[in-house]
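Revision sheet: structure tokens.
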Amino acid sequence: MATEFIVETIHEETIKPASPTPSSLNTFKLSVMDQLAPLVHVPLIFWYPNDTDACGVDDFAKAKERTQRLKKSLSQTLARFYPFAGRMKMSSNFIECNDEGVDYIEARVNCLLQDILKQPNGKLLRKLIPVPFKSGEAATGRVLLVKVNFFECGGMAIVVCISHKIADMSTMSTFIKSWAAMARSSSQVVLPELKSPSSLFPPMDLPTAAFKMELNKGGNFRTRRFVFNASKILMLKAKAASTDVTQPTRVEAVIALLWKCAMAAATSNRGGLTQPSALAQVASLRKRMNPPVPDNCIGNLLGMFAAQTPDSETELQGLVHQLRKGIRELNENYVSKLQGGDAVSAILETLQAYADLASERDEVDFYSCSSWCRFGLYEVDFGWGKPRWVSHSGVTPPQLLTLMDSSDGEGIEAWMSLSEAEMGFFERNEELLQFASVNPSVIA
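Predicted:
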């Protein structure tokens, strides 16, 4: 059984940039992709165990030194990433870079770090984040919130929440790794590129309700964590290979299996009635553009494709083929449309197709997928070592699949959210359990 715990806030303050933002830079324009991003804060949790075996009086001094280092380096980093210390002006589609600062919270948790890592529980992890996934806080204009949770015996969980209106996972990774490098006084601090998205895809007047989709359609949903280790992924890739896709990627193989099992769960929940399915996947456009956009470019630079299958297509190899066709369409057609002078139409048509699929959930089993793999999140070292675990908060909208690297960089952790009834079938799927462990311990 998961360990219950109490989180007590012990300190709150506002961290402002170390140097004022010049008046010439007091407005950061959102791109049309930023405009269309959901109004939510996306959380990441970095888990750091105590680097000593025993508790002691030095833990208090160590925690004090670490908080001072975090706050000072955050202030220095905000001077470079100055839009993150501003406030969003949604009606005007820009961020006012007014240096109002970032909410910084410290909290005490009355359990050991390892008590949580032995059996992570998504519902309990939510207690550690500074703001619910979808809340009124997102509409206040705050771009960034940070919460540092201290555990008994000195472990830490650092939570970073950034508004999706200015950040995709590439942006989050760039900011957090730069902050960590600043904390270490490292030369690896990155200067953000702040002009590309809005210059490539300028903001435009959009209807207030344009492509607004509900993140939660009601009902009882449950999020579960499934871990695929490297050796199981090799076996899965071999099973998923075919003449159409001779070498599936690890992400393709894992998504295809989870999609197949989700469809099977939905069919079982309907008493055996099959129906078509679609899976929409988000992908970064940075390396797909010609010329490529640098990784340090700040903002949402994302494309989306939907893999679809008739109710007769439920084989793993066929699903991998559908996924590969979708990414090929993104690379060959969508990106060329974006750079061919009709970017806005391409973006709006894709989002409309996505919205139409999402609205047909009674007739189509529809899922969304986002891969956070290969962003180097386990390299985030603030000066006391790399994290033992990196997770999201367990806050996952229904029908959403999120993939993250495991700590070795070769395995994959998948967080899947389904209705209570469908999850009951899903987590007992024999084919899934051949390759994945259900919520295993993070610590050996």
